[in-house]
Fold these 2 entries.
Entry 1:
Amino acid sequence: MKLVLGEEQQELRATVRAFMETVSPREGHSPAVYARLNGELGLSGLIIPEEYGGAGAGMTELAVVLEEAGAALLPGPFLAGALAAITLTRLPDKELLTAVAEGRVTATVAPLAGGSALVADSRDGEALVKGRLPQVLNAAEADVLLAPVTRNDGVALVAIDLTDQGVTRVPLTALDETRSMAEVVLAGVRGRVLAAPPDGAALESAWTLFSVALAAEQLGVMRACLDAIVGYAKIRVAFGRYIGSYQGVKHKLADMHCKLEQAESIVRYAAWAADESPGELPQAAALAQAYVGRACFEVARDHLLLHGGIGFTWEHDAHLYYKRAKTDEVLLGPPRTHRERLADLLEL
Amino acid sequence: MKLVLGEEQQELRATVRAFMETVSPREGHSPAVYARLNGELGLSGLIIPEEYGGAGAGMTELAVVLEEAGAALLPGPFLAGALAAITLTRLPDKELLTAVAEGRVTATVAPLAGGSALVADSRDGEALVKGRLPQVLNAAEADVLLAPVTRNDGVALVAIDLTDQGVTRVPLTALDETRSMAEVVLAGVRGRVLAAPPDGAALESAWTLFSVALAAEQLGVMRACLDAIVGYAKIRVAFGRYIGSYQGVKHKLADMHCKLEQAESIVRYAAWAADESPGELPQAAALAQAYVGRACFEVARDHLLLHGGIGFTWEHDAHLYYKRAKTDEVLLGPPRTHRERLADLLEL
Amino acid sequence: MNLDEYRSAARTWLAENAGRGDDAAQADAKEFMARLYDAGYSGITWPERWGGQGLTQAEERAFAAEARAYTLPTYIFSIGLGMCGPTLLDRGSDAQRERFIRPLLRGEEVWCQLFSEPGAGSDVASLQTRAVRDGDAWVVNGQKVWTSVAQVADWGLLLTRTDVEVPKHRGLTMFVVDMHHPGVTVRPLKDMTGRAHFNEVFFDDVTIPDAHRVGEVNDGWSVAVTTLLHERLSISAGVGMGGGVDWLSELREAVDTSDPYVRDQLVELHIRTRALSLFNQRLAQETRAGIFPGARGSAAKLLLAELTLFQADVAVSLVGPEALVDERLSHAVCLAPAMALGGGTNEIMRNIVGERVLNLPPEPRVDKTVPFKDLKVGTQG
Amino acid sequence: MNLDEYRSAARTWLAENAGRGDDAAQADAKEFMARLYDAGYSGITWPERWGGQGLTQAEERAFAAEARAYTLPTYIFSIGLGMCGPTLLDRGSDAQRERFIRPLLRGEEVWCQLFSEPGAGSDVASLQTRAVRDGDAWVVNGQKVWTSVAQVADWGLLLTRTDVEVPKHRGLTMFVVDMHHPGVTVRPLKDMTGRAHFNEVFFDDVTIPDAHRVGEVNDGWSVAVTTLLHERLSISAGVGMGGGVDWLSELREAVDTSDPYVRDQLVELHIRTRALSLFNQRLAQETRAGIFPGARGSAAKLLLAELTLFQADVAVSLVGPEALVDERLSHAVCLAPAMALGGGTNEIMRNIVGERVLNLPPEPRVDKTVPFKDLKVGTQG
């Protein structure tokens, strides 16, 4: 088991962190930023095998990158793209993988678990897809949507061109403004079948990795929150003393630090399991969401509260982290789903 | 709804409190103490109707008394006697009620919920009871046990003379040494049938009132714990300051106070409902155990921890309160049973 | 007229005059206040001499009980009626009472309260807005924040620093400031819900006549304590009225109550809501019996702050991803921290409960004796 | 011999020499330590000059990894090996090292540590046991508490007050005290489990030769800091080894896991246990990679204290009334607070994490400058 980063991973982290320091959660999705992320940093192809033009890195590296993106609250389809890349590596489709690796195409995913509200007619390599997805992550900013579609022979995983004229994307007012969501209505759109019937194990494995990827982002959110409030506690004065000198603040920050230490340990473990010990992965992934999701929200909430009134203002970033943390906590389903999954895996 | 004590109830409280200040949780069961409790204070007959020689008071008064007994950790069958008196007032048996009211007989109860491990032969006013009860509250100190017994026509509530030679009482090592428990083995013991088949509503009502009675005791335990640790925080010094001046201690004590305020409000409400608004009682009683049981343990635990090392010693009383609180929390079944009951009553 | 008759008359008046539902426009609000005043329901316990009714708490409670069924359009007057007016009654001059109380009660003038600053939140007494004497007037410069209804206010109760050579509590002076003075700039302050419930107020060479000083020079802290006491009373009165949304009812429709985990979460919601509600009712009964709750109200406020966060948190967690695009739930999540920040943070409430209810010893204080100019205040790099 | 060979040899030796299971009697323990020493496994990293093996952390970890499968009867030596010996190596005189280290490593002499007092727990430096100079010796009077293995100890590392005119940290001196001196009284201290894991130790005109002083007069605090650092290291080593009972396995047999509420509680138990275990493993990997965990070990200790309380609490709550007469569960409930009290309370741990990991500013201290005789200490009515 490997819970500490190697040298190359630390270098990757330093590079990404330096880049992320130049972005702001307030800017909204900036194609120029993504062009640099995909170009000079090569992040769009990070986990895509080298044969498709990617860097062939593992979840450990992806986790490092997502943590930094989370810490910076990078707006736009970064997590969505990572989830799509994970999905594509399970169901390798040369054309899409190459396009994503090169940064030519931005992809997102519809929820993979549960049934599908989309239906399709044909049976060949293409499908004419109809239906409505009420809530798709970053659908407004993506070019391609990977979604399960119901056909008369079962469910297929289909890549849908979101720029097709039969697609209507209705932006939604989401809790977290740095993480856009849209309703997607498909009025008979040609989609490319990636897998029909899809390999259940591959979809399951992708879904499991989503939990790890999201937990990595959550780890970054937690770390940024703790750093911010620790920093503030050292400069903000009340009653003639820095607020960080009061045990009421200090002890809460210590508890937040404890959560961060455990969260980081779990994320490193889950990423390691994904790369090196697939047998441990399902439990590790469920643990990651069950622990880190909650811990991240608690830390983000307390970091906002400890800022006092300033944390409640629109101008301060605290609320952006709070909203992101709450969003992430339920992004893959109500928290109890991860706990139930863990109970099943523990054979309780 | 009445959530504050009237003048007479406050006087009762003052009298009982003054008496309880003379008892020690270390002494074990003292018949002399009980003789005075039942005699000069008349507590054994408190809730027994006047026609049977009691004072005819309500649950509000009983709650006041149990709170003080809990605060003092009065050893012996005080709570058991109260539960037995509650049961008897639901299934009035003149002889036993009179004997209990006069303090001639000390009664206890077997768990009323669930089935019964006892069986009986006959069908008349008496029953020959056999069987084993693994864990009976204060069985070693009581004269009479009220227990459900299975007969071929159903379940009867039977009063069993524990001094009968067919009774074997095996004292158990219980977590809380101030609250004795014993295994009771009955090898064909003559018991008096109080109700056959027992009135289900009456038993249900008794069981509901047990929750209120126990919550009143728990309220007393909480109050005594908070008083003790607040007092200690005002005299104990660390690093040149009273420990109560540190927010690490102060804020925890404030949270404990909040729990106590809510617990007292709930206990007063549940006792009022028992006396004046039976329709509200089932929910109020389930709420009482669901909230007060947990709050009491948390307060008792934190009061022990905040005492530091001294709280861990046998000589200090902190551990007695901690053990009583944990005992009380599960006395009427695992805590989830009260929460489930509440969910049912809320028609969730 | 006995209390029952009073209450019955109030019921009738409200039925005829009060609308149900949405807040009315500001003009309507002023018109409504005038009618309320004319009917004798504004300033029920305030002295007759200054325009009040001179009645008792009993009448006030009776009216409040009847009014609970309505949403009266009195929000913009709440600061004036809850804090500024009572402060002038306690500490103002007769001339000030004569000038200000009746127009306040009649809804002719709106008031705001100007204490908090960006660098002085929990620790209000460390504020930095300066008032410098200039003959018969004072000149004020500085910035206030978290000011409700400032954008529509005619008058403000303003706490300023008038002496930096003495410790912080001893160099403050209270004034009534004309919000229409050209040196006053009000800027809406957007909060995390995206709405502007508050304002920032900037003072740029604002002159105030000395006749508008409330209390003695450098005795402003004791005046402010009066105001804050009234604030706490009006918040804890609000606490007693319960917190709006009935989450249990809402959620039982929205989630799968056959899932035992969900059931247990809803039970927890019920338990906490009921526990606090009963505590509030007990405090109210004690108050009626003549036992003043004092600092115990801070325990209720702390519990309400925690409950509010818990409710929104549980609601979103149970509903899941759909909650993220549900306007009502999203708004609840955004608004949830407000109760834990406004009217004193949870840490301040725990200090109050610890020190004033449990009588625990205070922290060693470094800020009570140092001259203000030498004191560390605000945010320091 | 390379590391693999070393480890393999240790495995062989342990298989032949170590019993599994119960603690051995004291005589057996001493005999076992002698064999351990003769085999070269006592004081693996300690200097050869004083009887150690002079090897590296690598060998020590290799031996510890192999020894984990056994319950070695070394408990009574743990204070000496973990704290007293390392302190003498760091701060003792050569004569003291010559006299004491080898008998300690060979298990001929048992050591205890005498710092805490009834009035000085978290705040050890406020201790009151006095040592007064008398020619070439010192005379000690006072009381210590929480002393493990004092009843069998031959020597004790004793921290005393030698000057009350200076602030508390500057008037302490460290000694080695002969536990067989007639003025030393050891009384077992029953804890809340009903067992006596600790002792109280009373000093009544106990004389100590000046040659047994460790470090300079009035420089005892810096010596104690060395000892406490070693204590923390040996506790955090223990933390890394995990906490004994596997509650999840035990409970899954005892409770109804088809009840979704029970399942969720067991999942919570798993989550917390796994989270801490992974954190400990990460700290261990970092240590191996040369990153010293420092005060972050206090975070692990704090989490272990909370987990231990949670485990016993959940176990009893799930099992219900029967747990009250179950010896194993009852004992777990009684022992649960120990981890939150011993080796520093949770509050102290949070201070350490806050100040030494997060570098938050310290509390204002009133006790560092006042002469000890004027300082408030202990418990004051």
Entry 2:
Amino acid sequence: MEIQIAHYLVVAGILFAVGLTGVVVRRNAIVILMCLELMLNAANLALVAFSRVHRDMQGQVFVFFAITVAAAEAAVMLAIIIAVYRQRQTVNVDEMDLMQG
Amino acid sequence: MLEANTVATLAYIILFAPFAAAALITVATLRSKALSAFLSVGSVILGGVLSIILLADQISRGAGAEPVVHQFTWALSRGMAFHIGVQVDFISVLMSTVVGVVGSCIFVYALGYMHGDEGWSRFFAKFAFFAFSMLGITFSTNFLQIFIFWELVGVSSYLLIGYFYQKPSAAEAGKKAFMTNRIGDFGMTIGILLLFFAVRDVFGEIDSLSFETLKGIFTNDGAREQLFAAMGWKAALGAFLIFVGAMGKSAQFPLHVWLPDAMEGPTPVSALMHAATMVAAGVYMIVRTYWLFAWAHDALVAVAYIGGFTALLAASIAIVQNDIKKILAYSTLSQLGYMVMACGLVGAGAGMFHLATHAFFKALLFLGAGSVIHACHSNDIWDMGGLGKKMKQTTWTFWAGTLALAGIFPLAGFWSKDEILAVSHHATALYIVGVGVAFMTAFYMGRACFTVFHGTYRGHGHPHESPRVMWIPLAVLAVVSIFGGFVGAPSSLNPFGEHGLQSFLLVAYLKDGVVHWPVGHGHVEAGLHLDVATVGTLMALGGLLLAWLFYGKGVLSAERVKQRLKPLHTLLVNKYYIDDFYLWLVRRVQQGFAIAANWLEQKIIIGVLVNGIAAGTKDAAARLRKTASGQIHSYVTIVLAGVTILVFWFVIFMVSE
Amino acid sequence: MQPTTLIILAPALTVLALFFLPANRPWLIRWFAVAGAFATVVLSVTMWLNYDKAAGGWQFAEYVPWVEDLGIAWNVGADGISIAMLLLTSFVIFAGALVSFRIQDRVKEFYILLLALVTGVFGVFANRDIFFFYFSYELAVIPMYLLIGVWGSTNKEYATMKLTLYLTAGAVVALVGLLLMYFGARDFYLQNPSMLAGFLSEHPEFAGSKAWSFNLVQVIWAAQHGAFSETFQFWVFPLILVGFAAIAPMWPLHTWSPGGHAAAPSAASMLHAGVLMKLGSYGIIRIGLTCLPEGAVQILPWVAALSMMNIIYGGMVAMAQRDLKFIIGYSSSSHMGYVLLGVASMNVIGLNGAVFLMFAHGIMTALAFSLIGWFYDQTHTRELQDLGGLIKQIPFVGTAFAIMAFASAGLPGFANFASELMVLFGSWQATLPVQVGAVTIPGNPWFYLYAILAVWGIVITATYLLRAVRWAFFGPLNPAWAGRVKDADGFLWKLPFVFLIVALVAFGCYPKMLVDVIGTGVEPIVDALTKARATLLAGR
Amino acid sequence: MEPILAAAGAGHAVAFYAMAALAVASAVLMMTQRNPVACVLWLVVCFVGLAGLFVTLEAYFLAVIQVLVYAGAIMVLFLFVIMLLNLRPEDLKAVALPRIPLVGVVAALLLLAAVVTVISASRPYFGMSVAGILAEVGPTKDSVRDIGLPLFRDWLLPFEATSILLLAAIVGAVALTKRKV
């Protein structure tokens, strides 16, 4: 059976959904962050697949940028988590409700 | 004969002299009592003198002379102009003479009566203002003007009744008078609107408020038929509504309740306004606009019966009153009912005649009562008695007034009452009412006189005759009351010609003096009607005799009659419970509506709607606030749900493409 | 420079000057403010006397383009209706400035706000530019918020919030309508260049004007030449109506007004009830009736029905009040019902009466609030049962109050009587058919009912006003006030009251001198309405 | 360089399924693990699987980057942070689902369904054989050059901007974690 672009996209979709579910379900801020990373990567996979469809490298360049941004984002996010942890002694997002209206 | 311009100028002077006096007193001379009194009294005496000159001029012009009309535009809208001015003809001059002469007497009397009152200047300013308003009605050229001064009379009445403003009963009485008049004016306004636009609808943009214009239409058979065909039943309604205004001012049932209460004002006020002039305004207006009533038959019938009913009602209440001013007040009501009844029976001339004579002797009676009250410091006739010896001038003048009112030959009341009974002769029911009222009038007046002036003094202190400034006006009025009626006598000596005053009055309101009425033909010869006169005089004498038997000689006991007719007595003392009914209407029904409206406003409109919207916004905000839990999960989930919906919308859109 | 510009500038410049006056010299500030107010009286009286009644239309006009890309200009002028309103405003502010001499707290700020408010009001009444019209309207609302919020009493926070919310919400609704008209007119001129040329040839004073313009004259011209379809008008007129009716105030949008009156300091109450409320009815007449006649004639019969709620219901509610300011407040809402009825009658006399009543009621109610303020400042109560017999203690104020009550109750001799009478005549005339060419517009029989109810409303008014006079001023003097309440003594204190009474009486005794001027402004509007009715009728 | 899989035919399919299964399975495990350290490790496995998928698309450079940067660097950072925080056992127990998880899960599944629908609706477009495309493109000679040329020619400015972004991130991270400023 021949593998189609669609297969890759479905896999990307599944990974994205899994990451999303994790973001919604998990309470540990670090794990949520990891799930976010997974979602980003799912998008990356789709981008690479599209780049193949278009026979163009631009998609891959974009993935490159995405990875860079993800790295920066992870660093900042982790720093925030550390700062929050210092304040509240927890990484449980349920207890981070300072923004409550 | 005077020039038309001179006549108009004189009328303006008569009209505005009291106004100028009132304004001057208010603005400048409040502090100077003498000056205030001089201005006020002088302006009215001037009016009286000029009125007599105008009256002489009218006589020289002869019956049926064209009126002198002068007016200027008061307000102007496209296609509609409102005018104000003076209309001088026999009726208006007669009325202004009555106002001027009676007014002069009363103003002079007030100089004595109000002596030492702290509000002296204020009183004379208001008094002069009243004279102005009344004269404004008198000289009105159109419905709008008469309505304007109509209202002004209402105000001055309010101010003067409530003169002793610190007395709650006086303040209430003023309010009551004003409001009752307002209800009458409510009808009058609608009547004027109805008539004004109905005439315009048929005849286009003419000045259809003007009396002369309307008179021209109503006395022209073709035009009138055309108008009535267009108006249908509204013609009678319009006339009746205008009459409702007269009901307010002339205190006809059911709007009569204010007049007895109006006695709260100082006695000169009662004499001038609530006996002689203001209450006559309603009758005057009916006469003034008689071309309308004469042809609106259904309205005329209502006028006649309302007048007759009021006469009977008031006379019966007067019998049981103990307050001397209240007796006279109910007597006034009753006499007004007479006049209105006469107008309703196509006897506008008779009504007007009675108005004039009644003004004199009723003013006389009130001033006499004032003199008595001044002496005894009480209003109750049972606190008086035997005053005949102590107050000679007051007594003989009061008796003159009483006999005139009772209609004893040859006093003034006899002549005018005779006219009224003559016109009612062909309407049997009302004729009986008229005769009965004549009897009752004589009886209650006799009762008052015998109780007050004869027997022994039952009050406190030592009553003595009033000062000259008070009794001289009484004497003047008494003389007019005794001899004034001869203007109605058919005699070649009469200044009004062989047929007396009536010949002037009849042609003044109708071209040929003949109108047709469903109950009978309304053409009444001016002069003396022997059959009616005999019956009327006998009734009056009978009434006086009965009063003498009860209260003079004392052979009959009023107490026993009272005991025997207990329920009737209670009913009369309580004035048929009409006042109580109105009180209930105002306190419970009207206030109930007001409270209901306020409840609706405060609880529903403001409470539910306005504050509800505000509270709803706040509540929604409070709820929405909770969704901002500060938790990442909820935010993510909401975003996710939104994205999902968008994606689905997109998918469905795409697939359907 | 034309007096229209000057009358807007006068209070504005006074505000500017007041900024630089030292705050610790209250008398200097007071006299300066009064001088500014008096200047407006002089200007408005000048305009009224010099208005050419034969020519009619816009006079004292001035046109200076400002933002040409949007079509905004300094475009002022006055027609008969404006003249009456300018006269009213200047009278009220003059009296208001005098009455406010009693204010002791933050005198400078008070007068600055007061005159800023009036600048806005003059800006509305004298403007022909929709942009500045709206701008001025908002300018008038904001100072009122502060005046009540800072110097007010009796639940002032609630009252001032409610007032401001109502007025701004109304203004926003009206703004939508105004913008729709602006764009509608723009499209009309863009699509028909010949029309623009036609307009400019008829009105050479607007040379250089483009298709898009906030010029009211240009918008009206477009409206007269069919720029707005019947459907457009039918939907836009309610926006204008509701937007301005909120300030008029039409039932059931009236509830801000009595509370606002009660909370405001005297001068603010005077301006609020006397002038601010007139902005609403003025807006309805000036914008709604003139630009959207075909919409107006369809909606106005309903306005007449609502006006009955104002008159009867407002009067009934007033009857149940115990607080004098609330009585006058609800009576204002009742009187404005007559204005709406006059407008809805769609004939010359009705509209003349409505505009004249706006004038008369403005002065009367200003008088009322200034008088109530006079003794409220001393007794700190307005409850009827706490007063009583006051006329003995303060004869001048008491007499003036009684005169005010008579005026309000529609007694002859006061402008209120003449105007209410004209409204009644107008209302009754609305029941008659109107012949326009071959078309006969049938009369509206509902107006019989409205007229009768309106007459009854006068009876109701008299009832509660006389009761107020009776309980507050007549009867035995409440010993609590004996010797403790001061009367208005001296020329300075009496002046504002006398001034307003004289105005009421002068125009009441001889209404022709103002009605003639008003008529020149009203007649074209009525003609447009009549034409619209005929068009709609012929179209069906 | 010989195409590794293009000619492999069935081999390509096997590689795809293997890598996809690895990625999805480890992702699910990552999501469900209680201990964050285990999560990190499973995520590393997932990234390796993704790198494998990149390889099957002949995006070799990205595959390498994926392993080096992601699996290597970023995940190590995660591990460090976890160690640094020194979480107590009770912190790790808090796995009870939050209040509105079902909505989220359902939404995620619906989203997936939508994605799949879109993909299947675009079958002519996405149904292209990967092998066919790769064959058409021809053998990849120099993957780094392929990506480097557009990167430094067309996207030079954004590329340089990322350096500033990274710098900002570093500064930010340091500033955030500093105890006292």
